[in-house]
Specification:
- By secondary structure, the protein is an alpha+beta fold.
- It contains 17 helices and 15 strands.
- A hairpin with a 5-residue loop joins strand 13 and strand 14.
Length: 506
């Protein structure tokens, strides 16, 4: 063989930028070398003649030169075992073979050097395409990524090389960050879908914070819906006290929280204590109010009962004397003074309003003499009662005054009450009388629905049902069971009487 042809062979071998020369000692894989020694072995060329400075390898040595994997082992004809493009590209993932760029990912002890291939990355990401092929493309074979977690970056590369998605609870947020950073929308969508499928009351606040941080409005809306429907459980979750102040404000400003305002205040107190500790401040009432900022004025103190206010906020030290006096006046006098806190009820429920009707037909007439109509009921899942449907006068259009209550049977505690009015048109339809805010009803627990009407004689229901199943719009069913409420009930029973309908949300 002529020497010139041998030189051609050597040049072709060298152009592969392999890590070992013929007859030489094996070198460690490039991603195991210090960053300042990662130039390819055997790539030094004499500037005058363009030939390698090393001795000419023998023909047998040239034939034995093959690509190596990250372990340094020779891989002979590896392409023959990969029958599809996907298999061949997947094999190159995190592999030194043919790699032309290295990423130094992470910081300090967590730092990792990861080999990659510019072409594969440029095909899958516009950001990588600009990085390697744009007007300001980098010429360096090393790219530092101190803000990216190595595991998340490997998940991104795995997706770009093979379309495989490898995410879990521990890595999903860092992978989402990396996917957004490099504009890989398909992986971003997989991450968001994973979060949606794992959304619960225990992590709703945590995921809401992340969704707002990463500008994922659809995920944020799902988190808020979860918080609306399960406010008590979400506020009691460990992650609630870890949220940022903007997220706290966004939640407290909602009209759709299904919880008593006194419980909201207790949760906000817990958050303010945690925030003082985070800021290394003494946990004092003044500091708690300071760290709350405008969130403090999002608490709707006027929605509390006077007992709830007296036992909680009035003794907390967060309100000044003038505010306490003004709020006590709000609870006891008319017209109501301006107290500087919202009094808008949190009863703008989401979802479809549902109604259970317990009577099959209507008769007349039902009288009132200052006594209360009552019926006992239970449900098989948690619901939120927002009002009752009541019968009106059969004499013609009339206005009634009514005092509504829902009472927990075992404890005799009033869960919700309101004094209001409703107008009827003289028909035997039912007419709405609503609570100020939703009343949470727990499953398999006995409650008393109570209505004390003041007005003329009305229609009443007959042929009552003990068990009524309500079909919901999402395919669920809610089962109500009605029974006799002992004591003074103005004659209302399962079979006939008032309170024909309960209006609720799930």
């Amino acid at each position: 063989m002529a020497s010139g042809s041998k030189n051609d062979i050597v040049n072709r071998v060298l152009n592969l930028r392999l890590e070992e020369g013929a007859g030489g000692e094996e070198h460690p894989p490039q991603n195991m070398l210090p960053s300042n020694q990662q130039s390819r072995q055997g790539s030094h060329v004499d500037e005058e003649n363009g030939h390698a400075n090393e001795p000419m390898p023998s023909s047998s040595a040239i034939e034995n030169l093959q690509p190596t994997n990250n372990t340094g082992c020779r891989l002979h004809n590896w392409q023959a075992t990969k029958t599809t493009v996907k298999e061949r590209l997947s094999f190159l993932f995190n592999n030194e073979i043919l790699s032309d760029v290295h990423f130094i990912v992470g910081k300090d002890a967590n730092q990792q050097i990861i080999p990659a291939h510019k072409f594969v990355l440029s095909v899958g990401s516009a950001v990588f395409d600009a990085m390697f092929n744009g007007v300001l493309a980098t010429k360096s074979e090393e790219v530092e990524l101190p803000d990216v977690e190595p595991a998340a970056f490997l998940h991104l590369l795995k997706f770009l090389y093979s379309d495989e998605v490898r995410i879990g609870p521990e890595s999903v947020m860092t992978t989402l960050y990396t996917a957004k950073k490099y504009a890989v929308a398909a992986l971003e969508e997989h991450c968001v879908d994973f979060l949606k499928s794992n959304l619960g009351t225990d992590n709703a606040f945590l995921l809401l914070t992340q969704a707002r941080l990463f500008d994922e409005p659809q995920l944020a809306a799902l988190c808020l819906e979860m918080i609306d429907k399960n406010t008590t459980d979400a506020l009691n979750a460990e992650g609630f006290t870890d949220i940022d102040q903007d997220t706290l404000n966004a939640v407290l400003e909602r009209d759709t929280l299904r919880i008593r305002e006194a419980k909201i205040f207790a949760a906000v107190l817990r958050w303010s204590e945690a925030e003082c500790i985070r800021r290394q401040l003494p946990v004092t009432p003044n500091n708690q109010r300071m760290v709350l900022g405008r969130a403090f004025h999002a608490i709707r103190f006027p929605l509390m009962s006077v007992e709830e206010f007296a036992m909680g906020p009035a003794q907390s030290g967060l309100l000044d004397d003038r505010e306490i006096v003004q709020l006590f006046l709000y609870f006891t006098v008319n017209p109501k003074p301006n107290v500087g806190f919202l009094d808008t009820p949190r009863c703008c429920m989401t979802g479809k309003e549902l109604t259970v009707n317990r009577f099959s037909q209507t008769e007349s007439r039902w009288g009132y003499s200052g006594t209360t109509d009552r019926i006992r009921f239970t449900v098989d899942q948690r619901i939120f009662v927002v009002g009752f449907g009541l019968y009106g006068s059969y004499f013609g259009p009339t206005e009634y005054e009514v005092h509504l209550q829902i009472i927990h049977l075992a404890t005799k505690k009033v869960c919700g009450s309101n004094t209001t009015t409703f107008c009827c048109d003289g028909s035997d339809d039912t007419f709405r009388a609503m609570f100020k805010e939703p009343v949470e009803i727990l499953p398999n627990t006995s409650y008393i629905a109570s209505a004390k009407l003041k007005g003329t004689d009305s229609y009443y229901g007959t042929r009552g049902l003990r068990r009524v199943t309500v079909d919901c719009n999402n395919g669920e069913k809610v089962v109500f069971q009605f029974s006799y409420a002992a004591g003074n009930n103005n004659g209302t029973s399962v079979e006939d009487g008032q309170i024909p309908a309960i209006i609720f949300y799930i």
